[in-house]
Amino acid sequence: MAATIMGTFKAALLTELQADSTLSAVQVTYGDPGGAARRECVFLGDIESADHEPSGFSTGPRRRLEVFDLEIVTFVNSKPRSSPQDCEARAIVLSSAAADVVAADPQLGGLSGLLWCRVSSMSMSTVETGDGPATTIRQTINAHARLL
After folding, report:
1. Kind of pairing between the strands at 27-29 and 132-147
2. pTM of the model as a whole
3. pLDDT at 101 over 70
């Protein structure tokens, strides 16, 4: 019995994001690239709220429903003479591409156990630095799975 699909879900989503044509020239990573981040990057963040509910009550191994949230982070650090609005516009293009990947294939190519996933929330923040404006968009991907 699979304890969770969190790891395989994250890996399958990474593969689909890396294959997207809009994101092809952008750094797309499994986790936070930290100091190795390029001016434009999309990375998979933390998984939270892994709730498990039995899908029925009986003795022995049971089917369970798993619900969790994965964060996709889009980061754009524009050149010093760029406007914050241009930086935000570029970040929105990249985060929209990530959202479109999820919307186009909510079962991530038939990932075993995954019932569906969707973008459930989004936030954006922009700061002005000496290195140019920087925008971070955080999207929460809500996933529902059936574990056998």
Report:
1. unpaired
2. 0.90
3. yes
